[in-house]
Amino acid sequence: MKRQIKIVAVCLTFLCFGGVIGYLLRVPYPATGGGQSQRSPDGKWVAFANTLSDGSVLGPHRTYYEFMIQTPPPAPRTVRTMRLEDTVAEPIDWREEGKILWASNSSTVAFKCDERKTRMEITLRIEP
Questions:
Q1: Which of 32, 59, 92, 127 gives 20 to 30 Å between its CA and that of 10?
Q2: How far apart, in whole angstroms, are the C-alpha atoms of residue 35 and residue 45?
Q3: How far is 40 from 103, CA to CA, in rounded Å?
Q4: Tens-place pLDDT, residues 87-125
Q5: Pairing of the two strands 29-39 and 46-55
Q6: How far is the C-alpha of 109 from the C-alpha of 102, rounded, in Å?
Q7: Dihedral sign from CA coordinates of 34, 39, 40, 46
Q8: What dihedral do alpha carbons 4, 5, 10, 12 form, nearest 10°?
């Protein structure tokens, strides 16, 4: 009788341990990736272009691009954020392939990737 109880206890322990490990492997982890940033000519804005991926160890993964415009430090405030998902092509490495181009009056910022002939432009409202 004691042997059967031990076997049942060991089986339940392994079952619980397996359930905890399975749960931890499916929990999503924070987005990781890299990119570049560029300050506007007038110094009022900072543009960021990042390639990020998130998911879990065993679950589905997704790769996306995040474009963000913020006010500069010491108190950054996000002005615009845009996320684009691209599942067909290889992800862009913004540190190597991409460029952030500001207009001379800081009214427009363009995110450009020459290898893919991809360009996205964001116009900021200029306040008097």
A1: 59
A2: 17
A3: 8
A4: 677 788 888 888 898 988 888 888 888 666 667 777 776
A5: antiparallel
A6: 4
A7: positive
A8: 110
Give every CB contact of residue 13 below 8 A, 6+ residues apart in sequence.
none
Enter the tokens of residue 123: 């116009």
- Give me 1's structure tokens: 């009788």
Instruction: Say yes or no to pLDDT of 78 above 80.
Output: yes
CA–CA distance, 111 with 100 (Å, rounded to integer): 5
Tell me, rounded to whole angstroms, the distance of Cα 79 from its chain centroid.
17
For residue 14, CA distances in Å to 1, 5, 10, 92 come to: 20, 14, 6, 43
- Would you call 76 helix, strand, or coil by DSSP? coil
